[in-house]
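ARCHIVE RECORD
Type: protein–small molecule complex
Small molecule: 2-oxoglutaric acid
Source of inputs: curated submission
Record status: active
Notes field left blank by submitter.
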Amino acid sequence: MGYLKPLDASMSNLKRTRCICILQMDAKASGSIPSTELFRKTTLPLGGMLWVSISRMVLWTLKLYPSFAVRKEVSEYMKHMIKLRDVLSELLSEALGLSSDHLARIECMESEHLSCLYYPPCPEPNLTLGLLKHSDTTFFTTVVQDDKGGLQVFHQDQWVNVLPVPGALLANIGDLMQFKSAEHRVLARCVGSRVSTACCFFPSSSHLFKPYGPIKELLSETNPPLYREVSNMEYTTAYQKNVRHRTSTLALFKL
Ligand SMILES: O=C(O)CCC(=O)C(=O)O
Ligand SMILES: [Fe+2]
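STRUCTURE (tokenized, with ligand):
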């Protein structure tokens, strides 16, 4: 990890991002269905139209050749991610002093969603971010980044580079775990593109309105709940509202 202070002051108010989500896939939905809505954010003023046009061409190519998005490798990758989720679920349960199947039983990470992100080179990386500062609205997310770097996590009041480690996966704690989720962002770079995949785990859509809250077995007089119960639907709705104002959503659910 390396610390990166000087850029931060000048970049903390940036609102422009330069990242295309080239594939979104819900692995449970009949094997693999590529989403046709592949955009993240397109808010570049200068040169933006050209960039958007190129992005649209990528979208059209994917629509014309949907098999691109359902390649065997993607399905295989998801199978491995699901196995990893099961192992992490057991390890996290045990680390909390619960039975190893506790988190699996409450079905808090039953669904998975894969995003493949493409960050094109940016002529003005000092004016644009690859991905704005955010926390994930998931239970947790695993990220694989290529060797270009650019991912940063907010730690002890500064942005810290998460340097790529060959063969390593990152596991990001998401908001639904209701610990302090890791705020992160991705820098834009002027030379060469960057790709990453983010595999998100969250409660299944059949539990959209199921309230999740502090685990009762872990509460005591000296360890009272810090957050109230919240459903995935309620949380996601609040998050989307808040993201526009760039304020913390977790804070809304604090007791
Ligand atoms: O591209 C990355 O390294 C991070 C992606 C990310 O944070 C996300 O998709 O939520
Ligand atoms: Fe993220």
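CURATOR ANNOTATION: Residues 212 and 229 are 5 Å apart (CA to CA).
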